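In line with agreed milestones, the collection of sequences with tokenised folds has grown. One record among many is set out beneath this paragraph:
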Amino acid sequence: MKKQKQKQEQKSKPASGKKILWLDCSSGISGDMFIGAGLSAGVSFKRLESELLGKMPLKNVRIGAREVRRMGLSATRFEVKEPASARPFSWDAIRGMVKESALPEDIREAGLLIIKSLFDAEAKIHGMKSAGEVHLHELGSADTIVDVFGALICLKLLKVEEVYSSPVNLGGGTVDTRHGRLPVPAPATALLLQGAPVYGQQPPPSDESPGGSHFELTTPTGAALIKGLAKGFSPMPCMRLAGYGSGAGRMDFKDSPNVLRAFVGEKTAPCEKGAGDSGDDGAVLVIETNIDDMNPQIYGHLMERLFKAGALDVFLTPVIMKKNRPAIKITCLCVPGRAPRLKEIIFSETTTLGVRFHRAGRQTLPRETEVIETEFGPVRFKTSFSGARGRQVPEYEDCLKAARKTGLPLREVMERLRSVPATKKAGSV
């Protein structure tokens, strides 16, 4: 009876319903490693080839995948083959090619944003005004285009809704490029990963590089992918594991497997203590600044821009600064990858001369939003779970809409909606 009860409790443990992917970037990340991990986790190679090369006008480009070993572990090595005489694409050429492709609209938009971030990073590094002036050489090849859109197609075929990542290992030493020998991380990689948790660990020796000094673990394409896709950087989140894959890097190191590991599953409520996870959702970045000389009418506009740029929360606190001056402290919470853009907005929209930031742990309850038919029509309800119990609250905007439509006090509408049973569902959001 006791075992049966435990099984029932495990089955009733609430989950977010979202399928997530967590990437172990302890050996860095590249585009080919990402796709290799996706294939290893269950993506059909033929389906990937059909969805990618069958829908993009990439002439004389072929892709392949094979099983290899990295320090004795099996992993999938993904490769792109194109003629040696192939010339790099400009930003305008890539944009035109993608717009003419038969790729789904969401993949076209996401892929162009990621590739544009690569061109923008190179433009900034070389002092150019726009992406249109950049000639990327390595990064403008068909290899980069295939890596970016192939990674997005893998996520879609795996039905992944959210991507999370460990801190990213950049590698160490130097790397040879067409611009000469550059220190690791390459300038574009460093620029793309601003705000993300990274570290540099010298690669161990390999047969191809006995000193282990001329190899980067994270490439610019890998940096652009993880920066553009990762919702957060943290230890592995609590998840009901459904799949696992391992994508191989080019080199086979002697002391550690050169692989990108991918874990696919359904995100669950914070784990019980002792279950292998503290229930921590990972680090968030807290950005703050104090302002005592700005028109208060600007704060509303500032908050709107920060939320649109991906802030998790923004709030204002009255404080007393030096010389007993009344002031406002702006606090913005975000995942680390969003920090550069949010700091840019704060500097451009306010009178501040500087911001401070620190990392903080965060724990949230799993939640879902449902549409329920009520006396006021369809209303969205948010349900959060703590253990096996749920708490249901109507969305404020829908309550306000109902109050304006009926002429009833908002307080009365909210009280009546709070008593609506959760069984009268009209659908899920």
In short: The first helix runs from residue 2 to 12.
